[in-house]
Amino acid sequence: MNQVVTKTLPNGLTVILAERRAAPVASFWLWYRVGSRNETPGLTGLSHWVEHMLFKGTKTHPQGDFDRMIQREGGQFNGMTWVDWTTFYATLPADRIGLALAIEADRMQNALFDPDEVESERTVIISEREGNENRPGYMLREQVQAASFLCHPYGHMVIGWKDDLRRITRDDLYAHYRAYYTPNNAVAVAVGDFRAEAMAARIEEAFGSIPPGPEPPPVRAVEPQPRAERRVTLHGPGGANYLLIAFQSLSAHDPDFFPLAVLTAVLDGARGLPPFGGSGLGRAARLHRALVNTGLALSVNASVAATLDPYLFALSATVRPEQDRAEVEQRILEELVRLQEEPVREDELARAIKGTRAMFAYGSESISNQAMWLGFAEMVADLDWLASYQDRLAAVTPEAIQRVARRLFQPENRVIGWYVAS
Fold first, then answer.
1. 230-421: which CATH number, 3.40.250.10, 3.30.360.10, 1.10.510.10, 3.30.830.10?
2. Tens digits of per-residue pLDDT, 45-60?
3. What is the distance of C-alpha 77 from the center of its chain?
């Protein structure tokens, strides 16, 4: 992405700006370097809950004000939390983007965390979690993810464990807010129809007087090298069986991340990166041909995420109850061995690279998504990672894919999980 301007304010806030004049629209995102990765046992789900609380009002704007203010100007407004980050964003007519700056500066320092609202949101979040528990795929993912990490906080889901959600206090939430939601732990991104110099001045006016917080506690946990295959079997109601095979993966800044992204497309077609990905192009890909076309599985999926620390490469399948589970599992593992032993054909590689690059391009078309990608890259790697994304995909070779397959797809590096319908 060209013509990107960066600066750092005296209080530590990183600012990233990109002028885009195709339409009179601007998008403002505020990213915090905090997610489920920054939580400790007994306090899982804190970051997601704090995100909810930042929509609950400040000293000058009661709950609901922010939404009404944005909607009145015809804008879009939301937030999300994931493993490495929390972000809030608004996309508005360019001449109204100052509203987004004012809202984010306000709730960076003045969120109320009213005790009654905390209790109300506890009910909402536990209800959200219980809704997830009605989905076999979620329950299996939670168990496999927990089994995949012995010590790293990536082992728990972003929403947190239910018993933690029942016990977390208002003081726990507020302490988390004060520790992490500070200018020196944040990145402000603006993309759209404005002059970069003028936008930089507006951001400094809105955020410059906010004092920096203490240096956030570092995440010291390093997941040890796996030494044994782990297995999970979960029984529950349902009309199908579900398979999930997870391998400890690579961080976004690992040089092998890009070959792994192309390898994923070879297996399952090109798609965007989680948690923003979708629209797979996988009918001609290996897993679909090997499992869906042969009737072994109803659906298959492969995914890799770009994360700060090594996360998970995941393979999943939905299987009829009468289907031999061992046969399905073995067929998927055979496809991984094939990647280790045989170089990918040039035409297959070209299709995977072209599709992956196309999905990245499609996901970068809107002003909102361009701002999203700039902030996301800064959270998990850096702006050079984003600028070189397309070129590094294009440079992937059959030998690189084979090397990554041999590096990751070892029995001791995997967790195999089944949800068995009963």
1. 3.30.830.10
2. 999 999 999 999 999 9
3. 18
